[in-house]
């Protein structure tokens, strides 16, 4: 079972960006946490981060036929990108949405999630732990739907 973990714009600046909201751990620490979570779950991992909407769309398209499940934090594109929503719907790969911060308690423009409309589950406001929960959930979800 292989999962693709996608992180969107500015997440590469974790640690530096708004630490009161996103914490003091950097992006390398997040990647190590995600890899350890995948190892714990016994799934293969591919990590991808981009600041570019089209690159994220390209990556989702390329996942078709190669990836069993997607964990995605589309960052700011969560609230704007119909293109990422359409890509997730097009490939029909089960996806789980993650947000480090609790977007439900933030600005009104963060209250819509386009990508979330194509996701089977969302983990919001749990910090890095949300990625671990998403990976474990997807593993279970895929085991039950594919019989793996
Ligand atoms: C975020 C929340 C988004 O609103 C924001 O634009 C981000 C990060 C989060 O993980 O909390 O860049 O997706």
Describe the protein in words.
This protein has 148 residues and is an alpha/beta fold. It has one domain: Rossmann fold (3-Layer(aba) Sandwich), CATH 3.40.50.9100. The protein contains five helices and five strands; from the N terminus they run βααβαβαββα. The chain has a five-stranded parallel sheet, with helices on both faces. Strand 3, helix 4 and strand 4 (95-99) form a beta-alpha-beta unit. Helix 2 runs parallel beside helix 5 (129-146) and helix 3 (53-63) runs parallel beside helix 4 (82-91). The termini are close together. Bound molecules: 1,3,4-trihydroxy-5-OXO-cyclohexanecarboxylic acid. 1,3,4-trihydroxy-5-OXO-cyclohexanecarboxylic acid is lined by residues 10, 73, 75-76, 78, 99-101, 103, 110. Residues 10, 73, 75-76, 78, 99-101, 103, 110 line the site of 1,3,4-trihydroxy-5-OXO-cyclohexanecarboxylic acid.
């Amino acid at each position: 079972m292989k999962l693709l973990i996608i992180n969107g714009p500015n997440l590469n600046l974790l640690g530096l960006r708004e630490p009161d909201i996103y914490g003091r751990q950097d992006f390398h620490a997040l990647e190590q946490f995600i890899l350890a979570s995948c190892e714990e779950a016994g799934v293969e991992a591919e990590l991808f981060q981009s600041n570019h909407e089209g690159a994220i769309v390209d990556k989702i398209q390329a996942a078709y036929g190669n990836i069993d499940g997607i964990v995605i934090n589309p960052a700011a594109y969560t609230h704007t990108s119909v293109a990422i929503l359409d890509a997730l719907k097009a490939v029909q790969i089960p996806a789980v949405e993650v947000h480090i911060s609790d977007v439900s308690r933030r600005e009104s423009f963060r209250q819509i999630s386009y990508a979330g409309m194509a996701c089977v589950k969302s983990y919001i406001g749990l910090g890095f732990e949300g990625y671990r929960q998403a990976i474990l959930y997807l593993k279970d979800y895929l085991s039950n739907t594919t019989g793996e």
